[in-house]
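Page 37, continued from 36.
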């Protein structure tokens, strides 16, 4: 049973309340929401995956976040680690989306500089909508050719994918409500670019130990982004935060 600590409402939070809580603001520009789960010791993985950190409440919120989004944005490292094959939303979510004026399936976009992605993987073979790959002009031509058979491949930078260019491409496609499911390299990069509007962070009641990454890694976040806590939910000993960019 998920309850709300901030704002304190008392009682269980139902799905309608979750939809209201996580509703995107009305926006005419790409709005970037990140969703992560971390252990209480800051680890973003347990045994190399995020799945070992989640619980039922986390999965419920994860589902709601996908349901509300125009596009699921994810880094190539997360695709390589976690697969992402098959449909990203279930029958209920598709029906809810149709009823709320959204495309039946959210679009899916992958950030990859190397284009080291397998065109014959389930991610491409089972995708209900043709994936979009955001890459840079420096990517290997042979990999690009192979991936263009199964996805739209768009350059958003020369040596690396630049977050503003990636967001501009999503905006051109009318994909304004963005749920970015990581991973840590993407959050680190978007933080450096100042391209984060929200962070939904689930804190798992677990000391994961080991040497898993934290939720943002990479180049120094010189443009650190201040956050304001917008809501705090709980289930058992797990916490579900929603932070918005301060100011
Ligand atoms: N705790 C959580 O909620 C959570 C969420 C997601 C993932 N994870 C975990 O995080 C681990 C993966 O970490 P990760 O940092 O490798 O994942 P990632 O951020 O998904 O992927 C990193 C890759 O994305 C591409 N990339 C990111 N920024 C780029 C840029 N500006 N320009 C070009 N390419 C860029 C690069 O791909 P190329 O190498 O193809 O160039 C890079 O190697 C996995 O173990 C996964 O399970 C945890």
């Amino acid at each position: 049973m998920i309850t709300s600590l901030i704002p304190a409402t008392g009682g269980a939070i139902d799905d309608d309340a979750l939809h209201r809580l996580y509703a995107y603001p009305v926006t005419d520009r790409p709005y970037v929401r990140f969703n992560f789960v971390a252990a209480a010791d800051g680890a973003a993985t347990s045994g190399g995956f995020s799945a070992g950190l989640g619980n039922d409440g986390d999965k419920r919120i994860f589902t709601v976040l996908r349901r509300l989004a125009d596009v699921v944005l994810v880094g190539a490292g997360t695709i390589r680690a976690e697969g992402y094959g098959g449909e990203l939303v279930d029958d209920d979510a598709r029906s809810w989306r149709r009823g709320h004026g959204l495309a039946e399936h959210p679009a899916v976009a992958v950030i990859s500089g190397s284009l080291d992605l397998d065109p014959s993987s389930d991610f491409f073979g089972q995708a209900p909508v043709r994936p979009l790959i955001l890459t840079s002009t420096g990517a290997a031509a042979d990999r690009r050719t192979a991936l263009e058979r199964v996805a739209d491949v768009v350059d958003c930078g020369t040596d690396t994918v630049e977050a503003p260019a990636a967001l501009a491409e999503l905006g051109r496609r009318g994909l304004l409500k963005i749920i970015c499911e990581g991973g840590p390299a993407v959050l680190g990069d978007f933080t450096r670019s100042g391209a984060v509007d929200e962070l939904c962070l689930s804190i798992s009641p677990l000391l994961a130990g080991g040497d898993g990454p934290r939720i943002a890694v990479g180049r120094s976040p010189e443009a650190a982004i201040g956050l304001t806590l917008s809501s705090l939910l709980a289930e058992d000993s797990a916490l579900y935060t929603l932070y918005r960019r301060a100011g």
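The CA atoms of residues 192 and 222 lie 6 Å apart. Flag for discussion at group meeting. DSSP finds eight helices and ten strands in the chain.
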